[in-house]
């Protein structure tokens, strides 16, 4: 399969100035020399924490931001000097509630954006009805967007991203803030797009979403790509590690710090649950942390204890070295 | 295709603007207030034609305010709404989209002239006599185009900065003074006159006043029209050049959005 996106040694700095008289230049490096390709028809994920450089990368790919260095080509064209050739063949969806006209109806929004994408009115009319059905907004299509819920606005955003039947769709955290049903619907839409041969580049910080949808994932951390592989490949890349999940009534911060400090512990995450908290510890397989772990948690009531398969989240944390 | 895009952008903009309470306030209330204030300022001026200064002054001032706070304010609204970057990333060129928006707002804003006249007539019994309907239509058209061109030029510049609101407020009063909306520009200091002459609305205002004067000099009207058209062409060319710079700069400095 041909590459439809080619990124080589891409850099992007943001320059800000501080002070009134002696203005100090402050440079923030958002993207720091990343290289990756996206193949035609695949779902490619950029996985990273907030501020990792995912959105900046997407903005350079959609021709809205100039790279500070390196090259960035979409459908064979340079995103800075040949943006015209790219724009009609791609579309993009930003997560959240922005990017639509709230005082217009969903239908008017879609009609307007289809027009700006130079879609013929007849084609647009048919396409808009299909899109409204796909994003489940047909019955509310003629109401003003300002009367919509957050999830409905995001679904409309997704619809807007499809009005020109793009070859590549770039989605920046499209499920942020969506309810579980809305998020599932979006995942179904993404799968349907793949079935129709579309290429999808998706940024997310939801591990299960990336695991479930993506053919390949690039883990981006502090502006650099630290790993690029299939979800399975990423999990295998941290082979030699194991994971234990302990459900406790309450996890004291001091106890968590002691667990982190144990020899062989690679990553630790804590999630709240109905019965208390779930501590997920991934560690080097050549060490046995069960005994020390039990000692540390002696003051907590252990509800359950189980050995787990390594998840993409484990792989992410081990590869980025971040467990906060 | 471009005409369809222009028309749909105008329509969307008009719908959107009219749904905003601030726009309605600028368009419907400001001309009433401006007319009343200007009437009390001008009534002892001793000029027989002070009614024309009241109506045109109030109407044009409100028209400029409405365009300024809608068209140029739209750059900021679109930026905060996350749609500015969408519009910039379209296959349709951004200048065409912006032009449609500004024309839409300008058409709506012309209501200020009518409201100003109705206010002056109802409250103070001021009537205006048009000496040539054809020339008035031409003057109104050229006035509209001159406001559109100046707005387009300014709106481009405002995409470069996130401090749009500050610059927008700074532009309100100088244009009102320099273009002589409510008084002849000849009373301005000599050093300010070249700036006034360089602004297309100055000539449009002069032409509009001529249409309500006791007599009209067609040759002078034509001369003003030629100067105005010349300036419009120059502004349009400058705007084109400015956009080439802006198209690069907004992508280098990332000013299309707020972070």
Give the low-confidence spans of chain A: none
In the predicted model, the low-confidence regions of chain B spanning at least 5 consecutive residues are: none
Secondary-structure element series of chain A: EEEHEEHEHHHEHEHEEHEHEEHEH
Largest sheet of chain A: 6 strands, mixed
Determine the number of helices of chain B (DSSP H or I, runs of at least 4 residues). 11
Oligomer: heterodimer
**Rounded radius of gyration of chain B (Å):** 19 Å
Overall number of strands of chain B:
0
For the termini of chain A, the CA-CA separation is 38 Å
The chain pair with the largest interface is:
A-B, 32 and 28 residues
CA radius of gyration of chain A is 23 Å
Q: What percent strand of chain B?
A: under 5%
The SSE order of chain B reads HHHHHHHHHHH
> Can you count the beta strands of chain A?
14
Helix/strand structural class of chain A: alpha/beta
Output the strand order for the largest sheet of chain A. Answer: 6-7-8-3-9-10
Number of helices of chain A: 11
Major β-sheet profile of chain B: none
What is the CA-CA span between the terminal residues of chain B? 34 Å
Structural class by secondary-structure content of chain B: mainly alpha
Task: Explain the overall architecture.
By secondary structure, chain A is α/β, with parallel strands linked by helices. Chain A contains eleven helices and 14 strands. In chain A, helix 3 crosses helix 4 and helix 8 packs across helix 11. In chain B, helix 3 packs antiparallel against helix 5. The A-B interface holds A 14-15, 59, 62-66, 80, 84, 87-88, 92, 94, 96, 98-104, 108, 111-113, 115-118, 121, 164 and B 1, 4-5, 8-9, 12, 15-16, 19-20, 81-83, 85-92, 97, 248, 251-254, 256.
